[in-house]
Amino acid sequence: MPRSMKNDNFIDKTFTVMADLILKLLPGVSSEQKKAFAYYRDGMAAQSEGEYAEALENYREALALEQGEEDRSYILYNMGLIYQSNGELDKALEYYHQALELNPRLCSALNNIAVLLHHKGELSLQAGDEETAEALFNEAAQYWIRAIRIAPNNYIEAQNWLKTTGRANLEVY
Length: 173
Fold this sequence. Notes:
The protein has 173 residues and is mainly alpha-helical. The chain contains nine helices and no strands. Belongs to the Ycf3 family.
């Protein structure tokens, strides 16, 4: 039984049953696509329970089967989330960048890249490397600006940071 069916949550079980029914009824959905979706769904279930190794395994299987670029971008993004949660920031950045290559309008990936770059900038500042910190802050600003241009009502803290640091070279309203 797939992990997603083991969940005791009624809403999750209902979603899983509905998703399975939709997949069965949709014409043109290959068995590979169905398998990819099942692995992705099981990866999300494992990730939500903090079972990151299992989630990554499912995401890798889904990635091997999935053909659609947008769907692949979300798989890569979720893998980045896991690496970020585990403190593997450089690896998380790699996965977020891969997700953006497939889906340049994935705001959450843009935001997470900016957050990680800002964090690295703070670490550089603490280490006394102001030049590297400034470069990282400027790079973070560029990612936040891209995200804000796509979703102007989001990332209010980032917008405030951009304004207070003089890096806001855009009008979003």
